Amino acid sequence: MSQENVENLRAFWEAYNPEAWRRGEGDMSLLDRAVVYEDANLPDHIGESYRGHEGVARAGTRWMEPYEEFTIELEKIVGEGEHIVSIHRVKVRARHTGIEFDEPVAYLWTFRAGKVIHFRSFRDPADALKAAGLSG
Q1: Whether residue 106 has pLDDT greater than 60
Q2: How many domains does the chain have?
Q3: Are 3 and 80 in contact (CB under 8 A)?
Q4: How far apart are CA 63 and CA 93, in angstroms?
Q5: Range of the domain at 75
Q6: What is the pLDDT of residues 68-84, one digit of tens each?
Q7: Domain holding 76: CATH number?
Q8: Ramachandran assignment for 33, one of left (phi > 0), alpha (psi -120 to 50 degrees), beta (any other)
Q9: pTM of this prediction?
């Protein structure tokens, strides 16, 4: 199951559609119905937890609200088995100010029986790798 989790996560990101997530219609097929997402990316979301598919959709919508343009590119996946880290590049342009950001972001994913049961965002990929007991 370990390599399968990596491949499923890669496929999840290859099919990722920010506009669908903005509308709360993202593909949740990899996520367990009782999934928990912890947000540590946006200052006003740090420490918040979102539960279930509805919670993840709400988090995705909130995360993208302030941006006119939003892209997230998968750079690499580190680890295997139950704990995997995905490292990304996020590029955004703020809706009202036009300020642009180009920053890294990472997610620590926990799988059980082929489904994500928990994931957490990190502003610094090194922190995600450390939390997973991995090195990049």
Answers
A1: yes
A2: 1
A3: yes
A4: 13
A5: 2-132
A6: 998 999 999 999 899 99
A7: 3.10.450.50
A8: alpha
A9: 0.90
